What we know:
The chain has four domains: about 180 residues, no CATH class; about 210 residues, 3-Layer(aba) Sandwich (Lysozyme-like); about 80 residues, Immunoglobulin-like; about 110 residues, Sandwich (Jelly Rolls), CATH 2.60.120.260. The protein starts with a strand and ends with a strand. Strands 1, 4, 5, 6, 7, 8, 9, 10, 11, 12, 13 and 15 form a twelve-stranded mixed β-sheet that branches. It is about 10% helix and about 30% strand. It is mainly beta. The N terminus is likely disordered.
Amino acid sequence: MARTFPAALALVVAVTGSPLPAAAASTLPAPQTTARTSLATSSSTDGPARTWSLPLEGVQRAAVAAAPAFTHTEHDDDALAGTLAALSPASRTERFTLAAVSWEPDPSDEVTSIALRVREGGAWSDWYEVGVAASDDPKARLGSEPVIAPGADGVQARVETVSGRTPRGLRIDLVHEPERSGDARVARAARSVTTTSDETLGDAPADDVPSDDAPSDKTPTDDPATERPEPGPPKDAIAQGDEIRPEIVTRAEWGADESVVSDSGRSTKLEAVYVHHTAGSNTYTRAQSASVVRGILRYHAVTLGWPDIGYQFLVDRFGTIYEGRRGALDELIVGAQAGGFNTNTIGVSAMGDFRAKNPADPMLESIIDVIAWQTFKWDMKPKSKVRLRTGGSTGSGTRWKPGEMTPKLARIRGHRATNYTACPGDRLNAKLPHIRTEVEYRRAVALAAYGTVPAPPARPVGVALKAKQTPVRVSKKLTVRWQPAAGAVRYELVRRNAKHGNTFKPKGGGWKVYKTTTDTKIKLKIPNGRTWMFGVRAVGPHGHRSMVRVLGQTTRPVPSKLLERSKGKKKWRKAVDQKYFRNRAYTTRKKNATITVRGAKDITQVWLIAPSGPNYGRVRVSVGGVKIRNVKMARKKYKPLRRIKVVLPRPMSGDVQITTLDKKRVRISAVALPRS
């Protein structure tokens, strides 16, 4: 998504308005490790994963007038004109993996240009003008596409807006993702290719390149004299859709931090495929690729607050394909590949900068492979065109207003086709006709060999859970229901789960089949202390599966043995009553008596399952040493099985403690800890 500026500016203007030499640098504070560091392990080679930000403030108008002109050199002539709104000094930093710029949405103004340059190997790079990376969530933070630069230690950013005002909350975001000892092994195992050098990437030719609207589907790499064999007749076998799936590094293999991810929506059909690029380094090593993908996830999910990484698939310069947004291997998951056009589309992001460099042959082959597989699986004609309705997406630079239909555009397209951006760069954009031709051929061969993939059955419609079933379920038994789905012969109930004290991190990030049934309901037995998210998908007569319908999430109270009770003068005793949960409660009349549950992870609420009645006392609920709320246990009418909900201000981890505040009776049967 990069546009280039002149490689060298004689002067840059700092936020103070004072001119600085282009290579000047100021020392910045060391970054702080983020609260969530589960991606960093003992096998990492360069410290823990972390994110930090630098303020990006406005510039003085007088200083701007004296600054050198900044020419936009790529073709977005119909984009909104902008005025310089912010320019940071060229600043030295701690080492980072990627850099980006983010800000808070403002419907009254629009960012028209974002540019960054980085310091690598002691030298400053050219400027990269990057597009806006926007989800369709109006509450999400807006940000630029990231500039990847493993090992960089300096950054400078420049932002233009329509009004010239500095966007609220504007900042430079830096992410450091360390390499891990197994990263290179995973990349090598995923795809056996020859090592790609900078020479393979190649300098761009001096002449103009064909645009995305070029009438021919030939590029110089096509040999018009080569005749390809016509595909034979389809076989009788029923295609499943994954017959031509290429080798892909899964989320579990590249180390996705599922604790920062939430579930994404599903599309109903595939209408278009977006080809992206990042900006920045074309010289990262094979071993650095996985850390770059982890860094993009951290930027998208943690910094911008998206549900997950924006792209469904990513491809490095060595031809290794990485699974992007969770579920993309099996379903049409809604991503954030093109603001305003994310539904019924997917995105494949090429990791590198292709303004003046051609994509390496292994990368190009893998882009073709993954798109051919997706068009075969979801029955999309690669060389046809389609009109899409523009959705609402604040600040993402859509070329049409929300609700408007686009003209007919190629189904395999660059990001620039529908949004004001130069992505995927002139050199990769020029390859799109070749990509369409190759995808069309490979899809035709697959159709000839395996036949058409039948349409999957309809996705079931779920029946809402009752109030006593979510987010906490006292009983271990739970029945979930859904309505019959057209074309289904059976259903699979799928789940993600976590024990108490564990991060909600399903293996591989996907769904695990729990039970199969021909009925439209299933009875579950959820163990103590577990959090379960569950869904259902329909299965057709040939084994084709629908999208997953998420049915809900619930948490069981932790096992009784985990309730650590204070002893001595503040001792609790056991009160037995069949009306209590688990037929008993721990009771005391002592002030400052405590019940502690150790090692909670990412919890959003604390629920007390407890008797209450006249003259009962009060308790204080704390998490990780932070007081959350005082709770009155007294009620006018006696109730043996009361459910008391305490909402936390944010997801929190640490020990949960319930402390009595007076010498009145307090009884606690259980504690449940729903998590994010």
